[in-house]
Design goal:
The complex is a heterodimer of chains A (264) and B (257). With 264 residues, chain A is of the alpha/beta class. Helix content of chain A is 36%, strand content 23%. The chains are: A alpha/beta (264), B mainly alpha (257).
Chain lengths: 264, 257
């Protein structure tokens, strides 16, 4: 069911048999997923289906119980210390609520990875930060503000600028449009697409916003009960012939997916 | 065995927590000695721990010294031993009250704010964001706070010692009618290096405990605003209890024959 990546070269990320258990709750139960070079893959799935856990396992923030994650052919599971940090330097991540450091002004947030992670000079890093802010449509006035003074859409943009500041090879997007109005959602989606294209990076996103999913992805995979139950090109999602996928994209409460809601 | 079960469960939970804390402390110490270092952050934390705690600790110290002199007088006057007041004040302040009270005050002021700040960073994914930006939170968040605590608290206690003794002096001279010169002479003659040094060693240990508890509970907080609140409470309570426990053992180390 899980089609191999359409590109012939080594996938950027190759996940096989990934399993993660919290207590007696199985969150991921053998996930197989590939992200090709320059490809934008999107994982859909209901709330609590383990999408965020999947991302955190790849980032090395959570340790999977079994399975393998290859990044550029290198095993990430079991790495720690400087070896893990080296792999992480290939990643950029846009968090759900942007996760900006509220003790630092906007430009320092964007330049953070350059100054702290790569040891760049502050003045030099600030120039890069301003450039990245401009590329997400924010001018130099915003750079001196504190993150608390920004609106939701602006926070997302700053988060995006921070994610791309280090020219990552792989960018993760955790529900990029959650909490935004539809128009701002579209603006952020377009920025994501243009930034990813410009960097030539691969992207792995998770969302349950189908409009956003269609705009930003090349390929969609659906996560249900800890497994990838369907995967295919974004264009073919409407003809998936998979009752789970159909129920999900149509937002229907009737169907094979049973939400755990207690009836009144 | 329904009686043994809760006992065993509590015991295992306790061992788990102790293990987590030990690993956390070990990691924190290790990262404090390995580059990259963040001198800018260390200085900022030293300001927070030391400089901004001065008013609170100073007020605590001066009133403690004053009440010590007054209470000793009411007690010692019965045996006509009033002349021992300077000795009582200097020994109590430098050995016990200076470090313990400063430690407790800093636990309430600084430990709580560290737990709340790091806890909020945890629940808003800022700590995860640090990892993704190739920055280790142990180096960036924990190490500067630990270093600031261990270095700054002894200085703070040294100042508290002086202010405390001054409080005793004020009451003795202006209220109890002591001769100022005799009071100071008695104090200086009686104080021993060991008294002060033991107090400063305690202060360094307390500084470590307070900042460690603040960072540990903040780092492991979960579940939004309520989780951060719990973390803050736990940080202050555990730091205060540990201060009183360690105070006893360090005293035994220095003074038990």
């Amino acid at each position: 069911m899980n089609e191999p990546t359409p590109l012939k070269q080594t996938p950027k990320i190759q996940i096989r048999g990934l399993r993660k258990v919290f207590g007696d709750k199985v969150i991921l139960d053998g996930v197989d997923l590939d992200v090709g070079s320059g490809e934008s893959v999107l994982v859909i799935g209901g709330s609590g289906s383990g999408k965020s856990v999947l991302l955190k396992c790849i980032l090395g923030l959570l340790h999977p119980d079994s399975g393998s994650i290859l990044v550029d052919g290198q095993e990430v599971v079991g790495l720690y210390g400087s070896a893990l940090e080296e792999v992480r330097s290939k990643f950029g991540m846009l968090f759900q609520n942007a996760a900006l450091f509220d003790s630092l002004p906007v430009w320092e947030n964007v330049a953070f990875g350059l100054i702290q992670g790569k040891g760049m000079k502050r003045a030099e890093a600030k120039a890069v930060a301003l450039e990245k802010l401009a590329s997400v449509g924010l001018n130099a006035d915003v750079a001196e503000l504190s993150p608390a003074e920004l609106s939701g859409g602006m926070r997302k943009r700053v988060g995006l600028a921070r994610a791309i500041a280090g020219n990552p090879e792989i960018i993760f997007f955790d529900e990029p449009t959650t909490g935004l109005d539809p128009i701002m959602g579209d603006v952020i989606d377009r920025l994501i697409v243009s930034c990813v294209k410009e960097l030539g990076a691969s992207a792995l996103s998770i969302t349950h916003d189908m409009a956003s999913a269609r705009r930003i992805s090349d390929r969609i995979a659906m996560l249900y009960k800890g497994k990838i139950i369907w995967s295919g090109p974004t264009a073919s999602i409407d003809s998936s012939d998979n009752p789970y996928v159909e129920q999900f994209i149509n937002g229907n409460s009737e169907g094979p997916i049973q939400m755990q809601v207690r009836s009144l | 065995m329904p009686i043994l079960q809760p006992i065993g469960r509590t015991f295992i939970a306790f061992l788990g927590a102790a293990g987590r804390l030990t690993i956390f402390a070990f990691m924190a110490i290790m990262h404090s000695f390995r580059p990259p270092f963040y001198p800018r952050l260390v200085i900022r934390q030293m300001m927070a721990v030391g400089y901004y705690s001065l008013p609170v600790v100073g007020l605590t110290a001066i009133f403690t010294g004053m009440v010590l002199a007054l209470q000793s007088y009411t007690g010692f006057a019965r045996f006509s031993a009033e002349s021992a007041i300077p000795n009582v004040v200097i020994v109590s302040i430098t050995r016990e009250l200076g470090p313990v009270l400063a430690g407790l005050m800093v636990a309430g002021r600084v430990g709580a704010s560290m737990a709340a700040e790091i806890g909020t960073m945890r629940v808003t994914e800022q700590i995860d964001a640090l990892y993704t930006l190739s920055t280790n939170p142990f180096k960036y968040l924990v190490a500067p706070r630990l270093i600031a605590g261990v270095v700054t608290l002894p200085i703070l206690v040294l100042i508290a010692d002086i202010i405390g003794v001054f409080g005793g002096y004020l009451v003795s001279v202006y209220k109890l009618g002591f001769n100022p010169a005799t009071y100071i002479a008695n104090t200086v003659d009686f104080v021993q290096v060991q008294d002060v040094v033991s107090g400063l060693v305690k202060a360094a240990v307390f500084g470590f405990l307070v900042t460690l508890m603040g960072c540990y509970h903040g780092y492991h907080s979960r579940g939004g605003a309520q989780g951060v609140g719990t973390a803050t409470t736990n940080a202050v309570v555990s730091a205060s209890i540990l201060i009183l426990c360690f105070n006893y053992f360090i005293t035994e180390l220095f003074f038990a024959q």
